[in-house]
């Protein structure tokens, strides 16, 4: 406890710190005066007493807060130095703020979607069960029920599946982000309710088939849709027009297991038949839709749990084998097993799909920050050179080198702190902007970006490392001086120092290397985006409206669906201004699809992969509506119905790969043994899921020949007029067929351009950062040339006086830049080649070693460098020799 | 100069002990009185650089061995009076015990040599 008393005394001393010096001085004065009175000799008294000032110092040191005092001194001095050079300070702080801000912004997204653990109880013990080591991670409900009832590897297992539910009572849909959850979902995660209760779990409660329609809603949904009404428990929320009773509200920190998609409403899996009456998936042995997670017991290792799960796998898969499937598929099915994977960080589409992009952006911003550091180091060195006399004086009157270095590092840390502070502000704005840019209308991202200790620690660490990076070396160099020499000579003569200047050149080279890498990257990503935008997708995306129509909640019986779809199509076609309208099972560039191996006529059984075809079921006029050219044969027409022979259209790739040079018309392709189609036409290749995919084999079957139309259908409408003006007419046309049809309307162009969000963003950000890097490098080059000019003023004056022409003076000044530039560009090209390979998966239509790209980047950089060097060099050439020489 | 240096070499610990001892004997004293007392008792053998009393006193204040109070001298001058605390008295005993142990040991060595 002694240290605590001591601390209290120190603190109390601190609080009356000012009086300390006066008191002690008075005490000492009294001592000396008494001694002088006694001895009658003032000088002798002083001699006996010793050095009063030093004693005062060491008395103060006794209280041990000197470090704090000198730190305060350093800070005050540092701030004064920064304030007295506003230009330098602003440049340094701004470039650090941009660098640190960009890094923090990207990191906070990376942290949210990939690195951060879920805010649930002990997330490290959560594991996901998967059917294979990679690929799909979902199971059928029969498998889940088996796992739930049989597993003993976990203290609890849960299943869930994200979905969206329509809140609207009819007409255009308003979606809520939904979760299908097993009864113990919240219990296993350790998520309580802040109002009401969560599901009670286990087979007795909400897992029971025929469970009452109950819902647990999220905090934000409660605030948004019920204004935080405290009596919300017992009220109902209508999902796909079915009433669900709200039993609880989850806490604000729980947003579901998908980190970029907050949930609004969770309902029990057992309620699934309520929404999907007539085609429930609960006993579907071929419908894979549930993610399964388990919580490891405290002492259990992942390995042991995996062994236990694998032990029960054969039994479970035998019990759930889809009997209606062919024997071979059943055999494959039985070979499934369970694989465990940590699930502490939750699930993220952005994380899964944009992992490479995010890490690439992180690397890009890291490089920008490095360039900024190199720049500031350069500026600091130039400034240190100017302050050399100051340092020499300080060291001559007794400051240790460590003391001066400390002072300089304090200034660097101050700069870094200011930069980091501004950077954090920039980042909180920037990361929100990025998330906003990545959001699409159909799929808004909701990523929790609230300040997080990890992000703050990251920024702090970045700030400290930048300060060390840009500050330490210049500080060491600035203080490695021959005192006498500097003090004896004039300030300017002391400036040149071979070593210091070489460090400057090395930094410059580094900047050139990094800038070139960034410029090459920006060029590659821009080229990628350009290729994606100009690629011919096989259709024209302008002026097309896409409409999703869902009959699920209408009274239309399955037998009447085909007629309803046909009527909708006719009504759409009749709208004034509509050039063409068609229906399709899928519209291009959406995540959905239908693919299966087929049996082309005359082709012997290859591996299923070689016979895989992507399919679509479309109405007459589909190709006309999307403007996909018909190359051979005919389009579907209204006579292709259930009573006529089955017909099919294929695309070029299918024709070429299945039939080679032979005429495909009249040949057949079988989807199943008894389901054989005759090819009546060939259309141009189109993109199916994404713009950047390779051409795929696509086959089209006729909507009119669909024996069991599904409960939802998509329509496409092409118009000569602005397509959004058609929306009211479209809406009333469809509700004219049936008022209860749910609608989802969007423009085709939006759908396509939103699919290009990630390449667009990478291109945008890499160009912004590339330009920033170029600017920073130019500032660096400008600074170092200006410094050279200042240093060699006298020499230049002599040269001009002796008749040197401006051109030769400029050349002389630029010579200094040539070497770092040449070395930097060649190293940079090598680094770009290496880096290019890492981002290959983000490129489209351009190779990372494209010579034109590399050459363009090198040229731009060289030109910018020369321009930056030319400005101060030209000033040198215009020097008045008389003025320069008189100064000497 | 050489004399001065030798006097400065009094180990700080010893200085603490001397100050503590003087305060234990005389009760309340100010700095000048402490310096004089040490000098008189040691019959001028020990001559501390007088000023070094003050940093030492500050350290002792911090350790809690002494307390200080402003008062008035006989000559009606303001002076800071130092007084021993219980902790200080304990410290004096430990230091003296230790000193005796060490000096006793040294003496034995010197006698035998």
Please tell me about this protein's structure:
The complex is a heterodimer of chains A (888) and B (113). Chain A is an alpha+beta fold and 888 residues long. Chain A has 29 helices and 24 strands. About 1% of the residues of chain A have low confidence. Chain B has a three-stranded antiparallel sheet with strand order 1-3-2. At the A-B interface, α1, α2 and α4 of A face α3, α4 and β3 of B.
**What share of the residues of chain A does DSSP label as strand, in percent?**
5-15%
Through-space gap between termini of chain A: 67 Å
Radius of gyration of chain B: 15 Å
Distance, first to last CA of chain B: 33 Å
Secondary-structure-derived class of chain A = alpha+beta
Q: Quick one: how many beta strands of chain B? A: 3
- Spatial arrangement of strands, main beta sheet of chain B: 1-3-2
In the predicted model, the low-confidence regions of chain A spanning at least 5 consecutive residues are 491-500
Concise description?
Chain A is α+β, with helices and mostly antiparallel strands and 888 residues long. Helices cover 53% and strands 15% of the residues of chain A.
In terms of topology, how is this protein built?
The complex is a heterodimer of chains A (about 900) and B (about 110).
Chain A: H1 2-15, H2 17-39, H3 42-49, H4 52-62, H5 66-84, H6 86-115, E1 126-130, E2 139-140, H7 141-150, E3 156-166, E4 171-172, E5 175-181, H8 185-189, E6 195-196, E7 214-217, H9 219-226, E8 236-239, E9 242-249, E10 265-268, H10 272-275, E11 288-295, H11 302-319, H12 327-334, E12 339-342, H13 349-353, H14 355-386, H15 388-396, H16 401-438, H17 453-479, H18 483-488, H19 498-534, E13 544-550, H20 558-574, E14 578-584, E15 595-597, E16 599-600, E17 612-618, H21 622-626, E18 630-633, E19 647-651, H22 652-659, E20 668-672, E21 675-683, E22 698-702, E23 712-719, H23 727-737, E24 742-747, H24 748-755, H25 757-791, H26 793-801, H27 806-838, H28 851-877, H29 881-887
Parallel strand pairs in A: 4-24, 5-10, 7-9, 17-22, 19-21
Antiparallel strand pairs in A: 1-11, 1-12, 2-11, 3-5, 3-11, 6-9, 7-10, 8-9, 13-23, 13-24, 14-23, 15-17, 16-20, 18-21, 19-22, 20-21
Chain B: H1 2-8, H2 12-26, E1 29-30, H3 31-41, H4 53-63, E2 66-72, E3 78-84, H5 86-112
Antiparallel strand pairs in B: 1-3, 2-3
């Amino acid at each position: 406890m002694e240290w605590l008393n001591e601390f209290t005394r120190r603190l109390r001393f601190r609080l009356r710190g000012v009086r300390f010096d006066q008191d002690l001085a008075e005490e000492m004065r009294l001592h000396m005066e008494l001694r002088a009175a006694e001895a009658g000799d003032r000088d002798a008294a002083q001699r006996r007493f010793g050095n009063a000032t030093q004693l005062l110092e060491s008395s103060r040191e006794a209280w041990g807060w000197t470090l704090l005092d000198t730190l305060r001194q350093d800070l005050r001095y540092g701030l004064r130095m920064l304030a007295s050079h506003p230009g330098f300070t602003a440049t340094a702080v701004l470039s650090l703020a941009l660098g640190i801000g960009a890094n923090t912004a990207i990191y906070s997204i990376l942290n949210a979607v990939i690195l951060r653990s879920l805010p649930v109880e002990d997330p490290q013990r959560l594991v996901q069960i998967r059917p294979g080591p990679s690929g799909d991670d979902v199971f059928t409900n029969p498998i889940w029920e088996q796992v739930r009832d049989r597993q003993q590897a976990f203290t609890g297992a849960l299943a869930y599946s994200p979905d969206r539910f329509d809140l609207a009572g009819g007409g255009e849909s308003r979606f809520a982000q939904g979760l299908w959850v097993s009864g113990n979902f919240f219990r296993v995660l350790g998520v309580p309710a802040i109002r009401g209760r969560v599901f009670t779990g286990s087979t007795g409660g909400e897992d029971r088939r025929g469970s009452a329609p109950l819902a647990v809603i999220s905090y934000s949904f409660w605030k948004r849709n019920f204004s935080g009404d405290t009596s919300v428990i017992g009220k109902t929320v209508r999902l796909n027009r079915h009433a669900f009773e709200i039993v609880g509200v989850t806490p604000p920190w729980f947003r579901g297991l998908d980190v970029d998609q907050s949930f609004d409403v969770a309902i029990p899996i057992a309620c699934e038949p309520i929404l999907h009456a007539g085609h429930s998936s609960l006993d579907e042995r071929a419908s894979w839709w549930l993610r399964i997670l388990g919580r490891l017991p405290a002492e259990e290792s992942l390995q042991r749990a995996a062994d236990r799960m694998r032990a029960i796998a054969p039994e479970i898969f035998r019990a759930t084998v889809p009997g209606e499937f062919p024997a071979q598929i059943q055999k494959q099915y039985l070979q499934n097993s369970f694989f465990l994977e940590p699930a502490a960080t939750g699930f993220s589409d952005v994380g899964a799909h944009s992992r490479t992009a995010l890490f690439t952006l992180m690397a890009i911003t890291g490089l920008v920050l490095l360039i900024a550091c190199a720049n500031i180091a350069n500026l600091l060195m130039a400034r240190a050179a100017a302050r050399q006399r100051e340092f020499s004086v300080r060291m001559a009157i007794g400051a240790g080198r460590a003391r001066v270095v400390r002072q300089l590092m304090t200034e660097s840390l101050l700069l870094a702190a200011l930069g980091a502070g501004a950077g954090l502000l920039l980042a909180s704005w920037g990361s929100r902007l990025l998330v906003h840019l990545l959001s699409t209308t159909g799929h808004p991202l909701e990523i929790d970006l609230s300040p997080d200790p990890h992000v703050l620690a990251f920024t702090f660490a970045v700030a400290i490392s930048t300060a060390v990076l840009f500050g330490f070396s210049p500080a060491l160099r600035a203080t490695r001086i021959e005192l006498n020499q500097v003090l004896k000579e004039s300030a300017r003569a002391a400036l040149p120092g071979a070593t210091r200047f070489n460090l400057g050149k090395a930094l410059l080279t580094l900047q050139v290397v990094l800038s070139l890498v960034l410029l090459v990257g920006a060029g590659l990503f821009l080229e990628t985006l350009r290729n994606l935008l100009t690629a011919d997708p096989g259709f024209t995306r302008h002026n097309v409206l896409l409409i999703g129509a869902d009959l699920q909640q209408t009274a239309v019986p399955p037998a009447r669906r085909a007629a309803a779809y046909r009527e909708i199509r006719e009504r759409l076609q009749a709208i004034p201004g509509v050039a063409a309208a068609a229906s399709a099972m899928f519209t291009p560039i959406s995540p959905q699809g239908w693919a299966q191996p087929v049996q082309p006529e005359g082709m012997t059984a290859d591996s299923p992969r070689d016979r895989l075809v992507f399919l679509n079921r479309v109405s007459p006029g589909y190709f006309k509506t999307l403007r996909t050219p018909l190359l051979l044969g005919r389009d579907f027409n209204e006579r292709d119905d259930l009573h006529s022979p089955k017909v099919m259209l294929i695309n070029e790739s299918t024709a070429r790969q299945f039939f080679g040079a032979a005429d495909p018309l009249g040949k057949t392709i079988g989807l199943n043994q008894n389901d054989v189609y005759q090819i009546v036409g060939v259309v141009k290749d189109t993109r199916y899921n994404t713009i950047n995919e390779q051409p795929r084999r696509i086959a089209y079957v006729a909507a009119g020949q669909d024996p069991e139309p599904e409960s939802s259908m998509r329509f496409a409408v092409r118009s000569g007029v602005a397509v959004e003006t058609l929306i009211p007419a479209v809406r009333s046309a469809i509700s004219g067929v049936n008022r209860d049809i749910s609608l989802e309307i969007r423009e085709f162009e939006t759908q396509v351009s939103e699919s290009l969000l990630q390449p667009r963003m990478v291109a945008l950000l890499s160009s912004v950062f590339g330009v920033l890097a170029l600017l920073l490098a130019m500032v660096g080059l400008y600074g170092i040339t200006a410094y050279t000019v200042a240093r060699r003023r006298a020499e230049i004056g002599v040269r001009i006086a002796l008749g040197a022409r401006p051109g030769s003076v400029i050349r002389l000044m630029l010579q200094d830049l040539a070497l770092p530039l040449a070395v930097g560009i060649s190293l940079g090209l090598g680094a770009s080649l290496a880096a290019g390979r890492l981002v290959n998966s983000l490129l489209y239509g351009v190779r990372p070693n494209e010579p034109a790209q590399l050459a363009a980047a090198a040229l731009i950089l060289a030109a910018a460098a020369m321009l930056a060097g030319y400005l101060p060099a030209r000033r040198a050439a215009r020097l008045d020799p008389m003025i320069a020489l008189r100064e000497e | 100069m050489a004399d001065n240096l030798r006097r400065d070499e009094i180990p700080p610990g010893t200085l603490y002990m001397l100050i503590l001892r003087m305060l234990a004997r005389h009760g309340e004293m100010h700095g000048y009185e402490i310096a004089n007392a040490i000098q008189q008792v040691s019959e001028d053998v020990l001559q501390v650089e007088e000023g070094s009393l003050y940093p030492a006193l500050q350290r002792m204040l911090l350790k809690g061995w002494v307390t200080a109070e402003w008062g008035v001298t006989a000559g009606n001058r303001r002076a800071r009076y130092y007084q021993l605390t219980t902790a200080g008295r304990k410290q004096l005993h430990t230091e003296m015990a230790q000193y005796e142990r060490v000096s006793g040991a040294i003496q034995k060595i010197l006698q035998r040599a």
